[in-house]
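Justification of computing resources. Each target in the renewal requires a structure prediction run like the one illustrated here; the chain below, 54 residues long, is used simply to show the kind of job we budget for.
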Amino acid sequence: VKLKGEEDVFLIVWTTMPFTLVTDAMVGVDPKEDYALVQVENETWVVGKTRLEE
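Resulting structure tokens:
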């Protein structure tokens, strides 16, 4: 999901129903989770740090 107002920054989401993403109005984040900014080519991805360790 591209972050509004940010240049090439995306929140990476996981779902069992990817076909719903085009109509979803929001995604949730865990306030207790630590997030990392990961550079992938010319994009920046926001990813939960626990997912980076897997």
